[in-house]
TrEMBL record:
Location of the DNA-binding region in this protein: 45-64
Region named Disordered: 1-22
Alphabetized PROSITE patterns for the sequence: HTH_TETR_1 (PS01081), HTH_TETR_2 (PS50977)
Gene Ontology molecular function terms on file: DNA-binding transcription factor activity; transcription cis-regulatory region binding
Organism for this UniProt entry: Acidocella aminolytica 101 = DSM 11237
Matching InterPro entries: DNA-bd_HTH_TetR-type_CS, Homeodomain-like_sf, HTH-type_TetR-like_transc_reg, HTH_TetR, Tet_transcr_reg_TetR-rel_C_sf, TetR_C_27
Protein name, entry field: Transcriptional regulator TetR
Coiled coil feature spans: none
Keyword tags: DNA-binding, Transcription, Transcription regulation
Domain HTH tetR-type stretches: 22-82
């Protein structure tokens, strides 16, 4: 069975038009990424992007139906990198408890690296979550699918208990992942993030293991 990647786990971002693979689309996303990082998402209009790229506003609308759609594409690019790392860990040939523990560390490390070394990107991710953009929902659903995969394999291997509902258990685990990747929470408690991620994963794993 082929191992899924972020591209197969997460659907394409909403609001895109035209062919999925197109040089102009990539050019618009790259230019918009740079523009948003410099001026901020809220202060930028589609007309601003068009002027910066040297295209007409109408031409940009051939590929994206709104500024939000461009923002979702940028978020998808960033969150896709994080999800790819989690996917590699989740499908590694190792005990399930080791994989789950590493997933906590990975999502904390990658979120800190990508959200907080660039304030403007952090702001876009915050907007995506606060406004319930589809890309944020898709990312959370994709992470849950990876957790379900790891915990199900752990149960099959006899590592984890099997008395509780698999979905309810994994949904609860996914909620604890928010503690180490949610942009607002990380902003308030960034110091010692990886150590805290390890402590949370240890607590969760104690609850998952067979008694």
């Amino acid at each position: 069975m082929k191992k899924p990647t972020a591209e197969t786990v997460m659907p394409p971002t909403a609001g895109q038009r035209g062919p999925a693979e197109h040089d102009r689309r990539a050019q618009i996303i790259e230019a918009a990424d740079a523009y948003f990082r410099h001026y901020g998402y809220n202060k930028t209009t589609v007309a601003d992007l068009a002027k910066a790229i040297g295209l007409s506003t109408a031409y940009i609308y051939k590929f994206f139906d709104s500024k939000q759609a461009v923002g979702e594409a940028i978020c998808g690019k960033c969150l896709g990198i994080i999800l790819d790392e989690l996917t590699k860990i989740a499908h590694a040939k190792r005990p399930a408890d080791e994989r789950l523990a590493e997933m906590y560390i990975s999502i904390a490390r990658e979120s800190e690296r990508r959200f907080f070394h660039d304030r403007r990107l952090h702001d876009i991710i915050n907007i995506a979550r606060a406004s319930q953009w589809q890309i944020a929902k898709d990312h959370q659903a994709a992470v849950l699918e990876l957790i379900l995969h790891v915990v199900a394999e752990g149960r099959a291997a006899g590592e984890f208990e099997t008395d509780s509902s698999l979905f309810k258990t994994c949904n609860a685990v996914a909620e604890t992942f928010l503690l180490v990747w949610h942009p607002v929470l990380l902003e308030e408690r960034l110091d010692g993030l990886e150590e805290r991620a390890a402590e949370i994963s240890a607590l969760v794993l104690r609850g998952l293991r067979k008694k």
